[in-house]
Design a protein that fits this description.
This protein is α+β, with helices and mostly antiparallel strands. It contains 14 helices and 27 strands. The strands form five sheets. It has an eight-stranded mixed beta sheet with strand order 6-5-13-14-15-12-16-18, with helices on both faces. Helix 1 packs parallel to helix 4, helix 1 runs parallel beside helix 7 and helix 7 packs antiparallel against helix 8.
Length: 639
């Protein structure tokens, strides 16, 4: 964490100085904003938190709830989401509070007594080396709290406007939203707000989606499930491990231990629904759920002392055709003004723990693109890529969830009744292992586009796949010998990263390939760093250039490196010493861990931490051509 750049400031460095246009903490809605976010769930808060980092962008977030969430429904946080939380600056808080899902156990009917269950397998929950972060469990409301804290501490001092229900949208060159208060005492006092862009993060019953005439396509699996968070006493030995239990004849259950050491979440299979039946017709009660859980866990006991929260739901998968307001078949010149994200455009069952994670990833993908357009760094045509990239991910999620839910809901095969349909518990365990990268959130792979290059030079860094998230690895920071993860330098600040992995030449030699690259980026008119950085701004404010050397940190003097890697910044012209890293032999050489060629290469990373392009270390003009595809010179503003 860096601070004091523009002068010494006492106090908490996470609390930024407010700008003059900082949002009021309460009161009437602003008449006009750049971005209106509808919905303050995890999707809306992810987007609002990212936009709050840009004080020159006016953002308003509204929600029909009367205040912040106190008890959440979602709780699973994937490894990739933890990486994103690190970019926002609160991963350590989540790790401290959360339950860590280190191992998963599998239970099946006891062959000796099919009415009882026995453990059939125990595995590591995520594969070794997949991420530096674990899969964790934490109440959704606490995730909201962390996002809200970052928003309040931002220069914009952004906070949600609660108690406002969206009525409708009028879409033209800008978007006019009509809202009404949910408080009966304020009925008849509608408010309007004009926005350049509107993002619907308002859930499965999204008013924004309905305003676009976008239906959710899909169906229900006609399978009912119950879920409850309980404080209970049980002799089930794996009550503090994530456990998948398939009973012989009583259904299935998923056990998810919760944070705090005592709370446990139970997903409990209930009866099959008739073709046109809804779960609300069943009048299912808490005692019904407890009784079903006891039957499934037999011969083990379950004594529920307190139910903190419970619900029942139907399994279903639904998806929108588009995630923006551009009609199908419209020309590229028709630019999007309204977007939908999260449950507003894709819904699925909760057992795989993907809903909140994929929804926040939607917002992380969209946020930096909106910021780039609103700051005049990119053309509004960039916004087309949001629907294209994220709908493909949602389609994969729907297909995975349909298969996962079907296997989970299927009864286990009975050796004494081979004609009965069912799933082999060993087959389910193998499927769980095979899909581990998908459930961890690390399998997302964007197709080639203007912001995601062709894999022509992929062999230069086989472990950093173009179109996939930047897979961090340990390094040592040269200036202060601090061990760290390179990915933790990639913050959610809207900047592109150009990571120069040097060859074995002396990095202090101006004639080295690293030296020539830095000279090009710092001095040539065609350099993207010079071309796209506004006059008077810090040299790394748009494209942040960093280097990873092959040499030991003890054998290189920072002051002998190219000036671009020691930039002078801020009103005092202070030198930034945190741009250069070296391998960490104690934890593994990053060149070996990520298959990086010893000849070196350049890895370009998007603001959402996805690898955008890999090029040879001396491909200066190719670097320029890549950025020229989607960025606007600093003197232009096409937003």
């Amino acid at each position: 964490m860096q601070f004091h750049l523009n002068g010494f400031r006492p106090g908490d460095p996470a609390v930024a100085d407010p700008v003059d246009s900082a949002a009021p903490r309460a009161g009437a809605l602003p008449a006009e904003v750049d971005v209106l976010i509808v919905g303050s769930g995890p999707t809306g808060l992810t987007l609002a938190t990212q936009l709050a980092a840009f004080p020159q962008i006016s953002t308003c977030i509204v929600d029909q709830k009367t205040g912040p969430l106190r008890l959440g429904q979602a709780d699973g946080i994937a490894c990739r989401t933890m990486e994103m939380f690190e970019a926002f600056g609160f991963s350590e808080k989540v790790l401290k509070e959360a339950y860590w899902v280190n191992e998963t156990t599998f239970w099946k009917p006891d062959p000796a007594q099919r009415g009882h269950i026995t453990r059939s397998g125990r595995i590591q929950d995520t594969e070794e080396g997949l991420s530096e972060f674990p899969h964790v469990i934490l109440n959704q409301a606490r995730i909201h709290d962390f996002f809200l804290e970052v928003m309040r501490n931002s220069p914009a001092r952004l906070e949600p406007h609660y108690g406002r229900r969206l009525v409708d949208l009028q879409i033209g060159n800008s978007v006019v939203a009509r809202l009404e208060p949910v408080d009966a005492g304020q009925a008849g006092q509608p408010e309007t707000i004009r926005a350049r862009y509107v993002v619907g993060c308002d859930g499965a019953r999204s008013t924004v989606r309905k305003s676009l005439g976008q239906p959710l396509h899909g169906d229900s699996a006609n399978q009912a499930w119950g879920v409850m968070d309980v404080l209970a006493v049980s002799d089930f030995p794996d009550i503090r491990l994530k456990s998948v239990v398939h009973s012989g004849n009583e259904g299935n259950i998923l056990i998810i231990p919760r944070e705090g050491g005592y709370l446990v979440r139970l997903y409990i299979e209930l009866d099959q629904l008739k073709r046109d039946e809804r779960i609300t017709n069943r009048s299912i009660t808490v005692p019904d759920l407890i009784a079903a859980a006891r039957r499934i866990l037999s011969p083990h006991t379950l004594e529920v002392k307190e139910v903190a929260w419970w619900s029942v739901y139907e399994i279903g998968q639904r998806l929108c055709d588009r995630f923006d307001d551009v009609p199908a078949g419209a020309p590229e010149s028709r630019l999007p003004r309204v977007f939908i994200a999260g449950d507003a455009c894709h819904t699925h069952s909760p057992k795989a723990g993907q809903g909140m994670n994929v929804s926040m990833a939607d917002a992380f993908n969209l946020g930096w693109k909106l910021a780039a357009v609103l700051q005049g760094r990119s053309s509004p045509a960039l916004l087309h890529s949001y629907s294209g990239e994220r709908r493909a991910v949602a389609q994969e999620l729907i297909e995975f969830d349909r298969a996962f839910a079907a296997m989970f809901s299927a009864p286990p095969k009975d050796p004494d009744n081979p004609g009965r349909e069912g799933v082999d518990p060993a087959e389910f365990q193998n499927y769980f292992v095979r899909q581990g990268r998908f459930t961890a959130g690390t399998a997302v792979h964007y197709r080639p586009s203007a912001i995601c290059g062709e894999p022509e030079h992929q062999l230069l860094a086989t472990g950093l796949v173009i179109g996939m998230r930047f897979h961090s690895a340990p390094v040592i920071r040269l200036s202060d010998a601090r061990p760290m993860h390179l990915g933790h330098a990639l913050k959610a600040d809207g900047r592109w990263r150009l990571l120069a992995f040097a060859d074995a030449e002396d990095p202090a030699n101006p004639a080295s390939r690293l030296g020539r690259l830095c000279d090009f980026l710092a001095t040539r008119d065609s350099s993207p760093v010079r071309r796209y950085t506004p006059a008077g701004a810090d040299i790394d404010s748009v494209i942040d250039v960093r280097a990873v050397l092959q040499h030991s940190h003890r054998n290189v003097l920072p002051t002998q490196l190219p000036a671009l890697l020691l930039p002078l910044k801020g009103r005092h012209g202070l030198r930034d010493y945190e741009k250069v890293y070296c391998p960490d032999p104690a934890r593994g050489d990053i060149f070996d861990l990520r298959g990086i060629s010893r000849r070196g290469c350049v890895v370009i990373v998007r603001p959402d931490q996805f690898v955008a392009q890999i090029l040879p270390l001396d491909s200066c003009e190719a670097i320029a051509r890549f950025f020229d595809q989607f960025m606007l010179p600093a003197t232009q503003n096409a937003s």
